[in-house]
Amino acid sequence: MSILSTNFKKSALVIVVSMLLFSLVIPSVSAEQGGKNNKKDGVVNTGRTVENIDEDWTFYKGAQSAEENFSATNFNDGSWEQISLPHTWNAEDGIDLGGYYQGDGWYRKEITIPNSYEGKKLFLQFGAANKEAEVFVNGESLHTNIGGYTAFTVDISDHVNYGQKNIVAIRVNNEVKDSAPLSADFTFFGGIYRSVNLIVTDQTHIDVEDDGSNGVYVTIPNDESIEKNAEVTLTVPV
Description:
Layout: H1 3-34, E1 38-40, E2 43-45, E3 49-52, E4 57-61, E5 81-83, E6 104-113, E7 121-126, E8 132-137, E9 140-146, E10 152-155, E11 164-173, E12 196-201, E13 216-219, E14 231-234
Antiparallel strand pairs: 1-2, 3-12, 4-5, 4-6, 6-11, 7-10, 7-12, 8-9, 8-11, 13-14
């Protein structure tokens, strides 16, 4: 074996060992930093909490009768289908030549809001629900969204019980009514077909209800390789 080959193998071994040691050190440093609030000039920056709640929903395809109240906290949805989001009820009949189901579909989920969230602002953020969605919390209708292709956010702060279980119910309808598009040669797949998040913020926060966005807009009009200023717009509810 040549001296060059031996030196190369030694160098490679040193590099591998160094990378392993580095990988052990970095997580511990990141964890330590992540466990502390960032402080600058005496201000504590706690940011916002985003919790995905796509799992453990129940679903029923159809409208409620006059005697039923699917959004009620005491309604028994034990016979409903167990599903996870994203979801559509036209997964099988969406390509049927004889037509597909258009009408109501209901979703329910039980969520527990910890006492530590009291005094915060709480929002349900929907990636999209096609085509009309009415949001209930503990039996109370809070918001109706028309349009199935954009995100929307609902403030639930004053409508939940802290330290207790809460019922979120969503009525979704994919019928073609008097909203655009009035007709099309494609299927209006009904359902909550994007993720749903629970967002928790401080009372003063960057707006999360601005068209379901994160409330931050950055404009960088620079098509040249020279330094320019960027415009950042923040929306803060008052």
